Amino acid sequence: MNDKEKSTVSKMIRIYCRSKHEQLDILCLDCLKLEDYAHKRLENCPFGENKPVCKKCRIHCYKTEYKEKTREVMRFSGPRMLLHHPIDAIKHLSAQLSSFLK
């Protein structure tokens, strides 16, 4: 599951960076740092494959600056995922919905 989440967060960061920082094929330094940080958080998640969505998690492992930036990226990229990566967007929304209903 972490690989899917890494892929999803990377796609969201790329959508954000492409639009906000006018990057085409590569991420700007700030977005690259955010992607690396998010991947490390996913790799070190104590819940492993049973990881809840971050919003519902009882352990908040993101530093404040990264948490705010991630929220900004997700707010911007979330709706656009339906256009750029519709299958991933539906899977992500489904996972969030099932976590919300638990």
List the helices and strands and how they pair.
Blueprint: H1 2-20, H2 29-43, H3 64-84, H4 86-101
Helix pairs in contact: 1-2, 1-3, 3-4
Description:
The chain has 102 residues and is mainly α. It is built from four helices and no strands. The protein starts with a helix and ends with a helix.
What letter string, H or E per element, gives the SSE order? HHHH
**Count of individual helical segments:** 4
Rounded to the nearest angstrom, the distance between the terminal CA atoms is 18 Å
Q: Give the beta-strand count.
A: 0
Largest sheet: none
CA radius of gyration = 13 Å
How would you classify the helix and strand content by structural class?
Answer: mainly alpha
What percentage of residues falls in helices of 4 or more residues?
55-70%
Q: How much strand?
A: under 5%
Please tell me the overall pLDDT: 88
Low-confidence stretches: none
Q: What overall geometry do the principal axes of the alpha carbons give?
A: globular
